[in-house]
Amino acid sequence: MTPRTRTVFRELDGIVLLDKPQGMSSNQALQRARHLFRAAKAGHTGSLDPLATGLLPLCFGEATKLAGGLLGARKAYRTVAVLGRTTDTDDADGATLRERAVPALGAQAVEDALVPLRGRIRQRPPIYSALKQGGEPLYAKARRGEAIEVAEREVEVHRLECLALEHGRVELEIECGSGTYVRSLVRDLGEALGCGAHVAVLRRLWVDPFRAPAMVTLDALRALAEREGRDAVDVHLLPLDAGLVAWPRLQLDAAAARRFAQGQRFRLPDAQGPVEADIVVLGADARALGFGRLDKTMMLRPQRLFRWAALSAAAG
């Protein structure tokens, strides 16, 4: 029996646009990709359901400091809703709660049902979700059979279109803000149509700022590593800057950049930029030093510094 080779992890900074396979949790996909890249530090930017496929941006090394911002980014999905059956998970993986006859539906009936689901809406998340209640994920409570009351919350649906309607199945494309559950949209659509519905297929198409993502699968990464060597997978590693394009930026001169890199807060009376918001702070050489926050008095406060910012400060 050949002994397993222990993975030696390395310091690696960047972003991988993974096409998550169906039947795997986001964390499982992250850990497999992390081992393929041998990244010492890794995180993802918001979970996809095990049933779902599609874009899961993975952050390695210093790029993990972007994860919070990407978590709140706009996203797009394509889903297939099956009418006539509701489940406890609001998708095909769950146990059946109720089956109902599907009425004869035309495109206009579906459109009429979609109208209240667009814009800023109140939505009740699924009980099988990673949202926490009392410090514990809802899905853990649901699996124990506990009665769960999930409060509605406001989300934003920027675009919701019916692409196809046939044989009791509705294909939808959704563009939405952070915190929106496609499973809840489908559940609410089914109730509006009077027959119930659940998600049968779900694919994430893009996540801002990656609107035309060149995704790679775990199988493709594994095959590339076996064929050309372990370092060959690095061709799919995007630079950290690729994830920064959506953030507002503020460039400092050399002296101010040094103070920022040392973690000092200071006032910039001539600064122009959004206040009370995270901004990317650049050094005099236009390299990103980290994230800061500029308040109404133009006080700049360092929030999260990249590793090389400290090196830059020491060198200065």
UniProtKB/TrEMBL annotation:
Residues 34-182 form the Pseudouridine synthase II N-terminal domain. CDD domains: PseudoU_synth_EcTruB (cd02573). Transmembrane segments: none annotated. The active site is at D49. Pfam families: TruB-C_2, TruB_C_2, TruB_N. It comes from the Bacteria. Residues 183-244 form the tRNA pseudouridylate synthase B C-terminal domain. It catalyses: uridine(55) in tRNA = pseudouridine(55) in tRNA. Keywords: Isomerase, tRNA processing. SUPFAM superfamilies: Pseudouridine synthase, PUA domain-like. Residues 248-306 form the tRNA pseudouridine synthase II TruB subfamily 1 C-terminal domain. Its EC number is 5.4.99.25. GO terms for molecular function: RNA binding; tRNA pseudouridine(55) synthase activity. It is an enzyme of class 5 (isomerase). Signal peptide: none annotated. Gene3D superfamilies: Pseudouridine synthase, PUA domain. Coiled coil: none annotated. GO terms for biological process: mRNA pseudouridine synthesis; tRNA pseudouridine synthesis. InterPro entries: PsdUridine_synth_cat_dom_sf, PsdUridine_synth_N, PUA-like_sf, PUA_sf, tRNA_psdUridine_synth_TruB, tRNA_sdUridine_synth_fam1_C, TruB_C. PANTHER family: PSEUDOURIDYLATE SYNTHASE TRUB1, TRNA-PSEUDOURIDINE SYNTHASE. Belongs to the pseudouridine synthase TruB family. Type 1 subfamily. Responsible for synthesis of pseudouridine from uracil-55 in the psi GC loop of transfer RNAs. This is tRNA pseudouridine synthase B. It comes from Coralloluteibacterium stylophorae.
